[in-house]
What does this fold into?
Amino acid sequence: MRVAVFRWKAVVPLLLLGAGGLGLWLAFADRIAKRTAESVGTTLVGAQVEIERLHIDLRHARVEIHGLTVASPFEALQNLLQADALVADLDPLPLLEKKVVIDRLTATGLQFGTPRETDGRTGGQADGVMGQMQRWAAQLEVPALQLATGKIRMDRLDPARLSTPRAAAALAARADSARQAWDSRLSGLDAAATVDSARRMVERLRGAKPTDVNLLGDARRTLGQLQQAQDRATALERSVTSGIAELQVGAAGLGDARQRDYAIARGLLKLPGLDAPDMGAALFGSAAVDRFRRALYWVELGRRYMPPGLLPRATPGPRRARGAGATVRFPRAHEEPAFLLKTAELSVQLGAVGAVPPPRTYAASVSGVTSDPALYGQPATASATAPGFRLGALLDHVRPTPRDTAAASLAGVALPPVALPSLPIRLEPGVGTVALTFSVQGDQVRARWTMQSDRVRWMRDPGGSASPSPMGDLVWRVVSGIPTLEVSASLVGSLASPRLAVSSNLDRALAERLRAVAGAQLAVAERRMRAQVDSLVDGHVAPVVAQVTALGGGDLTRRLGGQRAQLDDARKALEQRLRELTRLPGVRLP
Amino acid sequence: MLLLKLIQSLIRTLHSEGTPGQLAAGLALGAILGLTPLWNLHNAVVFALILVLNVSFPGAMVGWALFVPVGFLLDPAFDWIGRTLLLETPALRPLWTALYNVPVVPLTGFNNTIVLGSLVFASAVWLPLFFASRWGVGRYRATVAERVKRSALYRAVVASKLYNLYRLFRPEP
It folds into this structure.
């Protein structure tokens, strides 16, 4: 039986189904796009993105978003931004390639830092960038203001780290070795045998005649042997003298080693940073690191989602019941990027409604934000200028080495309060100026954050985590009389290990006062530390010093002196006898 | 309830008027729907084929239902296949790049590792599945079908209201 291949009667239901599907899509397109935009935005930012209403205007290729709220990825109950309305004019053709090209975006009623009722942070959803930045910030060493707790601590001193015991052991070994060598050479002199030989020769010469040429020759050789023995003794004496001098220098060097050990032990003292730069870092280092971390977070997100080059890029796939997998983009030269925002005009409102000073509205612009900078060929830029406010940013990922720079300054706005670490004190800078410049080229970062205010208020913060202490009271007395604030922090170096430097006008005043108060405590701590080093070192140093001293004035030099005296006496006696023989006329001692 | 419906559908399908080939083709096409993530453009094409081609629609639905859990289970394997093809096979890169920049094709989601991996897998098993199903249905009808037809369960299934709906899409001779 032949079976028909097509089921023609199903064509009409299929068309009806397709039309129904299209109708449903049109009916729910706004809702689907809203959910997709919220999901993608949340993944990108690392915090909740909420949209009140989204409308797709197919006829005009336009998307309208009303009531956009983006939660802060850093603060629990704060929004990063809110916008009353965003209108995006799309290029429709790239949509067929699943690419979004926004010719022009206008945003009105943008506000930053508004409060929210729920925690909008999603943490790990931002592809791990937040965790990466937290680890980065943790590596920056911010000294703690430990005098605030009134304690100076010392870590355990590891004897293996001290250099004096090692130097003492080496000196002892050298002294032992030298002593053995000298003993050996002294025995090798064999002065007694030479002296005995000389004495026997003197005896033989007593009955000799001047004409006994053979005997005189023997006497001459014996005299030569005496001379050689004396020379060897002299050389040995010289060696012993210089060797002992060197050992004594080594013994004196043990004192230097001990000083170095004191320095090592001093390094283990948990002293408060009493230098002005340390003080600045202790007071405002955490706040500065937090600002830099936030700036770097956006730079890192930019680099992740706007990478240079045209290689295939994998990003996490869409969330669905099935596995998400990875979605790979394959950019190609002369094609449209997967995402491109050509220009955006933003109306920004700074300052809270009802606050003093009242909120101001500024205009800002953004251009060239794209997922494939190499395709677009131009860097992404952002700029905003208004009285007292200036912002400029450039993300240049067109070339292989990305270059991100940003500079922003804001004057005449209420600055956020700063809690001083380890102290029950809170600083309310009031209205002031804050500025941040940031430049990341490749993996080299150069950043600066400054904050200035002429009318700061210092608040005691008994509800804070720091417990009251006498040192905290002292800091309070010092800072509460200072009406101005100038903080400057810089971050320089590679992203992997940058150097942080922080200074403020409080540093010197606070450092001098704390140094005066802490002086006595420091002296006690240093004495304790020295005693601990001495107890570990003395047992090694005393024996070796005694050993060197004994070598310098002891047995060896006495024995050497005795042998030299015997050789001298024997030589004199032999020479005397020979002289007597050579007094006879006609005979000369050769 | 879902399981009962599945059994009901399976029994009806096996005893439908369609040939074993129609039933097997429907089952194999339905397997594509089950193995790959559903909301993708290629599945719209597969669904249209199921409707327009003279294959067993109930067979396709059974295939879909049977292979959905298999798809979930094999997602890690699909991801591996997709990654290998998309990212770790340089020879295929020009093909993906070309497809990615052709209108409409990116809407299929082919550049997702799980979509591509599952689609490749489903395509690879389509023919074996078709032949195995055809052989299985033929054997079933030749051996136990008549006894099942006389059973109370079969009569209960056939008597249900859903049977009428099924008749709308049963394969044509």
Remarks:
- Chain B has one domain: 2-168.
- Residues 27 and 59 of chain B are 5 Å apart (CA to CA).
- The mean pLDDT of chain B is 85.
